Amino acid sequence: MAVATGVKVDVERFHDQGYLVVEDVLDVERDLDPVVAEYTQLLDELAARWHAEGKISSTHATLPFVQRLAQVLTEMGRAGYAPFDISLPFAKVTEETPIHLGPATFHMLTSPRLIDAVEQVIGPEILSNPIQHVRIKPPERLLPEEFRNSLVGRTDWHQDQGVALPEVDETDMLTVWLPVTDATIENGCLCVVPQSHTRGLVTHCPGRAEGRAGLHIPDEIRGTDYTPVPIKRGGALFLHRRTMHAALSNLSDGARWSFDLRYQPIGQPTGRPWFPSFVVRSRRHPETEVHDWRVWADLWRATRSRLASTPPEGKFNRWTGQEAVCEVA
Ligand SMILES: O=C(O)CCC(=O)C(=O)O
Ligand SMILES: [Fe+2]
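Above: query sequence and 2-oxoglutaric acid SMILES. Below: predicted holo structure tokens.
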């Protein structure tokens, strides 16, 4: 149902707790259904192409979306997920590296009602930060072990500040997590440690310890208390950049599908300087706002070309694995 009035964000509670559920920030029919349609078509096209190329045994066209995705990914391996994501990898980018850049996704990212809510937290000069992902997680039991990573499987404990470069430390980067399907405890909603944003940046360790799929906060640092945050589609979870969070496994029979997006005041560094950002809203310079999805798509394509010839130098995060707590983990 379309809601005409604006969303009131409890900014005080956000700053106190480090996270906030904002309900009905998107219109399900206008903002989310087109995204589902866009991805359904994408999966259809990819399955047809990969089948024609002999890479998969069937187009699996009779399966419902998420079972079809699981089947296609099982046959394609990890590379099969790349065309769905809305970001590029850190390394080995070529002119052919896939990325999803569709109009419905752009419209969701720039939905005025969502940006009105974001504005209440970070002010009216708003940049879209390029640290952004789609996570379409099929039931865990349908995927092989190699997919136990945070895009398709469960997500380990981290602070978003901890997975970006130090340039992001003094910014007001806000994480906006949007469920496309209702997020429940069973299907792998996010969990947060309330008020953990007040503890400063904590050590993250590379994923060498058993059962870890990537950078994570060791349990000794995190402690044991956390809160699962189920959210209905149309709502959003706002996260402070230092709030510790993770996602449970998808133990349901359906999809656990979300986008995570980030916004920050214009002029602040993004933490991934080699990727493109753009102005979503500027009261001061409205002429700089990007409203055409093709402009956004071209920004990423131009970035891809640049990275194909000049890969980013240096490290992609600040951790070495030599931190004392990591060696005992
Ligand atoms: O959805 C997930 O599994 C992880 C999301 C996340 O870490 C984020 O939104 O920052
Ligand atoms: Fe995160």
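Residues 135, 150, 155, 160, 175, 177, 190, 245, 247, 258, 260 surround 2-oxoglutaric acid (ligand 1) (CB under 6 Å).
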